[in-house]
Amino acid sequence: MTTVYALAVPTRLSLDRFARQANLHPVLVQRYVALGLLDCSRDAAGNLWFSPAAVRRVARVQRLRSDLSLNYTAIGLVMDLLDRVDELESALRRSQARGHEPADPEVPGSAA
């Protein structure tokens, strides 16, 4: 038996491979795409392709659905808000790394 070693993380995953990694049925993955909860690209043949990072995103969708019993519309809203929070936290970390202090809206003339 030959052992095969992965040399690199794939840059994209097919629908079937993504569904296996996410432990979901491919039809449910397609439903998440149709609802706008997952991003993917399509090739010329119409096949869906996912980034490896989408596995973490679908895990978040699953947690929101099972833990909080949110419907798909609410999950979309919560996911958008969580993405925005992530963006703001990243911007704050970059700003702090450059030595800028965050602005305090309560203090007139504070750093912006």
Structural class: mainly alpha
Order of H and E elements? EHHEEHH
Fraction in beta strands: 5-15%
- Main-sheet strand order equals 1-3-2
What overall geometry do the principal axes of the alpha carbons give?
extended
Largest sheet: 3 strands, antiparallel
Q: Helix count, per DSSP?
A: 4
Mean pLDDT: 88
Uncertain spans: none
- The number of strands is 3
Measured on Cα atoms, how large is the radius of gyration? 19 Å
Instruction: Kindly state the percentage of residues in helix.
Output: 40-55%
N-C termini distance: 62 Å
Explain what this protein looks like in three dimensions.
- This protein has 112 residues and is mainly α.
- The chain contains four helices and three strands.
- The model has no long low-confidence stretch (mean pLDDT 88).
Which terms summarize this structure?
52% helix; single chain; extended; mainly alpha
Give the topology, please.
Blueprint (H helix, E strand, L loop, with lengths): L12 E2 H8 L3 H9 L6 E2 L5 E3 L3 H15 L3 H26 L15
Antiparallel strand pairs: 1-3, 2-3
Brief write-up:
With 112 residues, the protein is mainly alpha-helical. It has four helices and three strands; from the N terminus they run E-H-H-E-E-H-H.
